């Protein structure tokens, strides 16, 4: 799910970059005000309303995918690696150490002295 959402997020990001680069700058309308070319294909206002709507929706989808990815990535690390590790049983430090047994004899434990 995260992989699919990441791919969609990257595609929306690239589309948003392209659609922003297609738009005119603020100074581009000044030439048309003094008798420049008219853009009759898109009407009197040109392609700005259509490109503005596309840019707005692309930005909304970009924000939604960004928030979704942030939420999903924060939820993946809920567990701990140490849950399945079993702690070794600690032996007391004062426990006597058995000596190796002789042939057939029981192991001997040294006497503790104070």
UniProtKB/TrEMBL annotation:
GO CC, alphabetical: plasma membrane
Keyword terms: Cell membrane, Membrane, Protein transport, Translocation, Transmembrane, Transmembrane helix, Transport
Keyword Transmembrane helix annotated: yes
Membrane topology: Multi-pass membrane protein
Location in the cell: Cell membrane
Family annotation (InterPro entries): SecG (IPR004692)
Pfam families according to UniProt: SecG (PF03840)
Signal peptide: none
Transmembrane residue ranges: 54-73
GO MF term (any one): protein-transporting ATPase activity
GO biological process: intracellular protein transmembrane transport; protein secretion; protein transport by the Sec complex
Domain of life: Bacteria
Major localization class: membrane
Function as written in the Swiss-Prot or TrEMBL entry: Involved in protein export. Participates in an early event of protein translocation.
Family the UniProt entry places it in: Belongs to the SecG family.
Protein name from the UniProt record: Protein-export membrane protein SecG
Organism, as annotated: Thiovibrio frasassiensis
Gene: secG
């Amino acid at each position: 799910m995260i992989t699919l959402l990441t791919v969609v997020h990257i595609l929306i990001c690239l589309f948003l970059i392209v659609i922003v680069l297609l738009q005119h700058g603020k100074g581009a309308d000044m030439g048309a005000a003094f008798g420049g070319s008219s853009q009759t294909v898109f009407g009197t206002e040109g392609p700005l309303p259509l490109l503005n709507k596309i840019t707005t929706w692309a930005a909304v989808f970009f924000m939604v995918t960004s928030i979704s990815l942030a939420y999903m990535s924060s939820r993946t690390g809920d567990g701990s690696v140490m849950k399945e590790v079993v702690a070794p049983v600690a032996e007391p430090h004062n426990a006597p150490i058995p000596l190796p047994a002789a042939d057939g004899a029981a192991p001997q434990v040294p006497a503790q002295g104070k």
